[in-house]
Design a protein that fits this description.
Number of domains of chain B: 2
Strand content of chain A: under 5%
Order of helices and strands of chain B: HHHHHHHHH
Shape of chain A: globular
Structural class of chain A: mainly alpha
Radius of gyration of chain A: 16 Å
Number of helices of chain B: 9
Radius of gyration of chain B: 21 Å
CATH class of chain A: Mainly Alpha
Oligomer: heterodimer
Number of strands of chain B: 0
Largest sheet of chain A: none
CATH architecture of chain A: Orthogonal Bundle
Structural class of chain B: mainly alpha
Number of helices of chain A: 8
Shape of chain B: globular
Chain lengths: 196, 201
């Protein structure tokens, strides 16, 4: 269980999951019953943390952001570059790597402790990451860009909470299944994948 | 198949020939100054410049200047809210910046091939040596990521169609679970192939 991954495998996991987030962002075609087209971007971010664990998850989301900021059209609506920084949602975007980090750290902790009800703990990890670690910077970003006070931004944020909570529950189901298929992935010791 | 990178339009315009570093600097300067200055006349000037820049790439205006409904809706709601609170000019700044930033970024993406953007990013990554990170590892990660996108997109579409055929096309977990499992397997195979070639260490 405690065998370290080959660094090349860590690098490939980071790179391929950065691609997974890009794909989740552009497919977005899964329509919810009430007609809202749901982008899977947050789902991809939370899942990356829950599946890869904190450090590889953090690096994968960071890589996704950096490649998007470089100008490749992998952000929502097929945009790329720095344009997203003028969008009210920029706080959420910048907090994504930390969301994956938190989701991975909490999920790894609960799996290593061997807590019962793995699915529940993994889902809760995703919820904390999404609603708090990503949500709070998201509210601050919305307040700065849309020039409204924090209370107004907080209320606007509430509109996204149900959707994000549903995505976290789905991410928990998926991550628990993936964790069964690849048990070493989340609980294995985490080397820093890209560092020398 | 590859619907991710559909924005670059080959051409011979002034902007196509301009170096990627210059275009990036223009985009960054416009987006950041628009947000910081936050004055209606400044934002509207930048908006006009961004429209001119997109038109200078010589793509059909209907394609270059198109806006998604979601973005228009956000812009309208922001103007409406700020007008409601008695600050219509603030609304103009926010919505104007939002649209200007999209156009400024699009100017870069329309006129620069992906390979040029990636090469520029990899050479920009060389400063990471300071943090004891090997730039070639970052370059390797970036190229694996880019190559994986069309592959994962096909994988996702295939799984989605199979789920729809079983009448489970709306069940997100039934689609994404096999997708993620196969993505992990694909990443591990890729990692093993890299390790066998002595790469990525």
């Amino acid at each position: 269980m405690k065998t370290r991954n080959h660094p090349a495998v860590d690098l490939a996991l980071v790179a391929v999951f950065a691609a997974l987030i890009a794909v989740c962002t552009v497919v977005g075609g899964v329509e919810l019953p009430f007609g809202v087209a749901l982008t899977l971007q947050t789902l991809g971010v939370v899942l990356t943390g829950l599946v890869l664990g904190p450090w590889r998850g953090f690096l994968a989301v960071l890589l996704y952001l950096v490649v998007g900021f470089a100008g490749l059209p992998i952000f929502s609506e097929g945009s790329g570059g720095l344009g997203v920084l003028a969008s009210p949602s920029m706080g959420y975007l910048l907090a994504f790597p930390f969301g994956a980090l938190a989701a991975g750290a909490l999920a790894a902790l609960s799996v290593r402790r061997g807590l019962k009800g793995r699915y529940i703990w993994i889902t809760l990890s995703g919820l904390v990451a999404s609603l708090i670690v990503i949500g709070i910077p998201g509210i601050v970003g919305m307040s700065v860009i849309a020039q409204v006070d924090l209370v107004t931004a907080f209320i606007w944020n509430l509109a996204f909470v149900p959707g994000d909570a549903i995505k976290c529950v789905i991410a928990g189901i998926i991550a628990a299944a993936v964790n069964k298929a690849f048990p070493a992935l989340l609980a294995a010791p985490q080397p820093a994948a890209i560092s020398a | 198949m590859n619907k991710v990178f559909c924005l670059y339009v080959p051409g011979d315009s002034l902007l196509h020939r301009l170096g990627v570093g210059w275009k990036y600097a223009v985009m960054a300067a416009m987006v950041i100054s628009g947000v910081i200055v936050s004055a209606w006349w400044f934002t509207l000037s930048l908006l006009a410049i961004s429209v001119i820049l997109v038109l200078l790439t010589a793509v059909p205006p209907r394609f270059g200047l198109q806006m998604s409904w979601a973005l228009i809706l956000v812009a309208v709601l922001l103007v409406a809210y700020q007008s409601f609170t008695g600050k219509p000019l603030t609304g103009v700044v926010i919505a104007g910046n939002l649209i200007m930033a999209v156009y400024a970024s699009r100017m870069l993406t329309i006129s620069t091939p992906e390979s040029v953007l990636i090469d520029a990013l990899i050479s920009a990554a060389s400063f990471l040596r300071v943090f004891r990170v090997k730039p070639e590892k970052v370059g390797l990660a970036i190229s694996i990521m880019i190559k994986s996108i069309p592959m994962l997109l096909d994988l996702f579409t295939g799984i989605q169609q199979a789920a729809m055929a079983r009448g489970r096309g709306r069940n997100l977990a039934a689609i994404v679970t096999p997708f993620v499992v196969r993505t992990v397997a694909y990443a591990q195979e890729t990692g093993a192939a890299l390790a066998a070639r002595g790469l990525g260490e």
